[in-house]
Amino acid sequence: MSIAGGLPRAVERARATGCDALQIFTKSSGQWRARPLPDAEIAEFRRLSVDLAVRPVIAHASYLINLASPDDTLRARSSAALGEELDRAEALGLLGVVLHPGSYTTSTEQAGLARIAGGIAKVMADRPDHRTMLLLEHTAGQGTNLGHTFEQLQTIIAEVERAGTATAIGVCLDTCHLLAAGYDLGSDTGYADTIRQLDATVGLRRLKALHLNDSKTPRGSRVDRHTHIGNGHVGLGAFRRLLTDPRLEDLPMVLETPKARSGNTLGTEPDSMDLENLRMLRALLEDATGSGAPSASR
Fold first, then answer.
1. Residue 270 DSSP label
2. Residues near 250 by beta carbon (within 8 Å), at least 6 away in sequence
3. What range does the domain containing 117 cover?
């Protein structure tokens, strides 16, 4: 949800749309600088998330952050920005900050993974009392982007764990990214194998959030293009499996599908495509379970 008009407005937009969980940017996603968060705004955000029952809330980190970069200046700036993202999320009482691991650009995959792990370890070591988790997002694998295999995520986590800070790291899966990276969600056996691979590498206990997005591109394309639920290559069966998997029923599931309106608005009226995507997912859940109402985390 947009934070136009202040962070508390995002909670009001989520409730007006019928959401139980929420993802926000705590600052502009395309800028390094961030305005300070006034104490009064933090307090109102915390109050509304409880009073309006929009919990948990997660943040998505800036797209500018690249801990894998071989450029020392960019990597240092990325580390500082990640620390600021975690500090803002901690002040707001958020579950976690979702981070794209990074791109190795002119170096190598191995070197990029090592730089990511080292950057995360330092940032988190400086914040030993933080409760907000860092959630590594599984990526589609475009270009030199890292994090598109479970093994890459496992490597990062294992390296950070050696530094003693991995307990605060989780993983966020994205259905569009999974498909584009080559993972099979389209059949019972394919879905079961994907979850088995996740558990054998990263571990299901580290899965803390899901992004539910359909994909404009087919399986294995390595191209990240989100579209509306039921309008892409992921398939309604895949969403049904995720929604009804008892191992995932307590996880926040967030839509990152396109909006009907372009640009930010100061109002809180629901976006028509948000309503339609939620309707599709809740209908799948209701049809699969035979219940008249979705569980609280949907």
1. P
2. 297
3. 7-289
Chain centre to alpha carbon of residue 53: 20
- Cα 298 to Cα 282: distance, rounded to the nearest angstrom: 8
Q: Could you count the other beta carbons within 10 Å of the beta carbon of residue 199?
A: 15
Q: Which residue reads 């270009």 in tokens? A: 143
CA pair distance 131, 56, nearest whole angstrom: 13
What angle, rounded to 10 degrees, do the helices at 72-92 and 109-125 form?
40
**124-145 as b/e, with b when 16 or more CB fall inside 10 Å?**
beebeebebbbbbbbbbbbeeb
pLDDT tens for each residue of 209-256? 999 999 999 999 999 999 999 999 999 999 999 999 999 999 999 999
Task: State the CATH number of the domain containing residue 38.
Answer: 3.20.20.150
Residue 222 domain flag: yes
pLDDT of 138-177, one tens digit each?
999 999 999 999 999 999 999 999 988 767 999 999 999 9
User: Does residue 196 fall inside a structural domain?
Assistant: yes
Question: What is the number of domains present in the chain?
Answer: 1
Instruction: Tell whether the torsion through CA atoms of 75, 256, 238 and 217 is positive or negative.
Output: negative
Q: Tens digit of pLDDT for each residue in 173-220? A: 999 999 999 999 999 999 999 999 999 999 999 999 999 999 999 999
Residue 186 exposed, middle or buried by CB count within 10 Å (0-12, 13-18, 19+): middle
297, part of any domain: no
